Structure formats: structure tokens, C-alpha cells
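Entry type: protein chain
Record version: 2
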Amino acid sequence: MRARREFSVQLEAYAHATEDPERIEEAVRKCVPLEVFGRLRPSVRRVEGYFGNPIVIMTWEATGEDLPEMILGHLARGLMPSDRERLSRHFERYIDEKGVLLLRLDKQRAYMDELTLGSADAILIRARTKPRGRTDSLKEIRSIARKAGLIT
């Protein structure tokens, strides 16, 4: 039996000058199972925007064990059925050239307990296998996403 590659999920959100970083963190918390959030590896970077405005970039990483699969399963249960259908139909469009699954969730709706795909002002979710490579990763991530119920 072939050993499965290392699988990880990263969540990233930006808190702009007019946003409360604690509220952004709360929105991200709602994207993962309650018992998982405390087990994620957090990091925070402070950068300056184009016009000198402060931006806080918050990242949480899940690797090993079953954390990444638990996160995808939580997303599968929380996403709107129409979003899961769109992911299923156009799955390859959500995979970049390195084989990383890229999902963007609407940050404002996540804060209100509604997980929906979004584009602007989003929580970015990256799911990847290692070693990377689009063809092999696509097969593996599709299998993991299907098992988690994220796609059909």
C-alpha cells in the first residue's frame, strides 16, 4: 500500500486598519472545528499598506495527524450546497499550478456563522500535499476533498 503524502491546510486572513483583528480571528475560528483551533500553529505579521496603512496578516497552519482532514470536513458541512456543487463541478479551477487547493471564504459572512465562497476581503484557505506537483497533488487532494464531503 502506498503511503500518503504529508497533507497540510493553511488559513490566512488580513486585518486592515479599519478592522478589529480579534473579530477577524473569530471569523477564522468559525471555519474550523472548535476543538481544532487551539491546535493550529498561528503566526502574525504586521505590514504597511500602499498608503502607509497598517495591515495585520494572520496565518494558522494545520499539519500531520488528522487536523487538515477535520478542517476540510468542517468546511464541507458548513458550506452552502450551491458552493459545494460549484467546487465539485469546477474543482480543477481551484488548484493552482503547484497543485495547491485555494479556497476563499467570505470573511464577513464567516463572522456571522455562514461559510460561503467569496473573492474580495476573504479568508484564504490553502490545502496542499508534499511533495508538490500539480498532477499528483490534484489526484490526492481531490481524493481527500471527496472523502471529507467537500466535493462529490
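Comment: Strands lie at 6-15, 41-48, 54-63, 101-106, 122-130.
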